[in-house]
Amino acid sequence: MTHSTRMDTQTPYLDGDRNWRDTATRYALLPLRVFLGVTFIYAGLDKLTDSAFMKSSGAGSIGETMRAVRDSSAIPALVDLSLKSPVGFGYAIAFGELAVGIGTLIGLLARLAALGGALISLSLWLTISWANDPYYYGNDLAYLMAWLPLVLAGASVFSLDAAIRGRRRQRAGGYR
Q1: What's the CA gap between 48 and 56, in Å, rounded?
Q2: Quick check: pTM over 0.70?
């Protein structure tokens, strides 16, 4: 058995000579970023515009939802905390989803936005969808896993973060 060294290493992004693999690698997370950004913006707006959701009791309300999952959640104390002010918690989740979605979609503080999305998904998984059996029927765990590559990589293309980095490089007179 012989071992060889690959000689077809990828070209760096600093020069203009990119092949299709380099381009695909660079844009690989863009569909995930768009999907998560749009989904979280929609989720936040959906909560804010649903008059039944932003109530402490009643069918479809955040309060009723939290009371229904309290005993089956992984961390009942987290649900109890939300039940101290269900409407406030509902607004916090809705505005958090909006901030995460917008930050992810436009690529502003993308890693921080992705971390926020991961934390929202984690909290929803540990409370709302914890009792799903089998576990893969709940989508919050899948959303949590989808956020992790964006936490690690950020938004390298079509983002305000990339534009800001480009301006800093330009001002510094080269690549950083």
Answers
A1: 14
A2: yes
8-state DSSP, 70: G
pLDDT in tens, 53-79: 999 999 999 999 999 999 999 999 999
Residue 12 tokens, joined: 């760096």
Q: Which residues have C-beta within 8 Å of that of residue 48, sequence separation ≥ 6?
A: 54, 91, 94, 95, 98
Torsion, Cα of 104, 108, 109, 110 (10° steps):
30
**Residue (of 128, 150, 130) closest to 36 by Cα position:** 150
129-142 pLDDT, tens per residue? 999 988 888 899 99
Q: Answer for the pair 160, 107: CB distance below 8 angstroms, yes or no.
A: yes
Query: Residue 82 pLDDT > 90, yes or no?
Result: yes
Going by C-alpha positions, the residue among 129, 125, 170 that lies closest to residue 146 is: 125
Q: How far apart are CA 139 and CA 149, in angstroms?
A: 17
Q: Quick one: which of 32, 59, 65, 61 has its CA closest to 147?
A: 32
Please give the pLDDT value at position 136: 85
